[in-house]
Amino acid sequence: MLKRTGTALSVTAALLMVSTAISSAQDMAELEAAAKAEGMLTTIALPHDWCGYGDVIAGFKAKYPEITVNELNPDAGSADELEAVRANKDNKGPQAPDVLDVGLAFGPQAQAEGLLMPYKVSTWDSIPDSAKDADGHWYGDYYGVLSFAVNTDIVQNLPADWSDLLKPEYANSVALAGDPRASNQAIFGVHAAGLASGAAAGEAAGEAGLNFFSELNKAGNFVPTIGKSGTLAQGATPIVIWWDYNALSGRDALNGNPPVEVIVPASGVVAGVYVQAISAYAPHPNAAKLWMEYLYSDEGQLGWLKGYCHPIRFNDLAAKGVIPQEMMDALPPAAAYEKAVFPTLEEQDAAKQVITGKWDSTVGANVQ
């Protein structure tokens, strides 16, 4: 109900608000119709056990059954995603991705190359300014912190911090969850190890992280295999350096076979934001925009939270009181995140350049 103030200005403002709402509803109806006419959405690098994406994708399909979701290379890294856009600029077929989900440092890189199409979702104002491009080329979607997922059938003494990973008892045990020359998650793992040594975020922590992994490799503790649920369960990589949400969902999927402990390290607690973007060459641009609207709706954001990710609109959802208590109870204790640091975009980029450029010469382990 409109509040009566007796002024023409208030009535005019109220009418404008109603008009805007109607316009937005019409715009959404038009977008839905255009997306359904395209009939397909092509995603890339979205494993179903990452951040609850399996249920998120299923939710989108249920809401828009007229749109087929074509999923490319679920295990690709952020650099692979950008390469897929570059390689398919002139290709409107099923190998051309419409949308991207990449590490924060890769958003500005893709924008600078002209690979992204700007689009602002209807919930744009509730996304923190620090986590989005002002013109809508990319915008934060969720974040987590680096953790250790440990197969306790094999590892009896749990590592509490990064320095523990160098102990002889962890021989042939420690793996990154990606190739540090291409995977944002793996790059963050190296950066976090450097920060735990006391180095400043950015280039210094990148160098320190490389030195740490060089020591880990020389000690025989580093396993040059991309860690995932399967390798964790088989014992090929009994300790995996993983985003907490991946580690927790992996633990749940294994359901005690084997038992898995997820540990947030005592130092070097690094939070990483991922971002969404639409390819400038998207074969299905309207379906891509509709996907973004779904992801940034309350429903989409809660889908990520169910997958143990902190959605970028978390504070807004909490303020509105729409987060179910059982979701809050399923998250790790807040105390584990008290030391979390969010490296700036410049610090991330500096660390990324060092890590991707010097991994081969410093560590010399071909991760695959």
UniProtKB/TrEMBL annotation:
Single biological process term from Gene Ontology: thiamine transport
The UniProt record lists the keyword Protein transport: no
Signal peptide range in chain numbering: 1-25
GO annotation, cellular component aspect: outer membrane-bounded periplasmic space
Domain of life: Bacteria
Originating species: Aquibium oceanicum
Signal listed as a keyword: yes
UniProt keyword annotations, A-Z: Signal
GO molecular function, one term: thiamine binding
Listed name of the protein: Iron ABC transporter substrate-binding protein
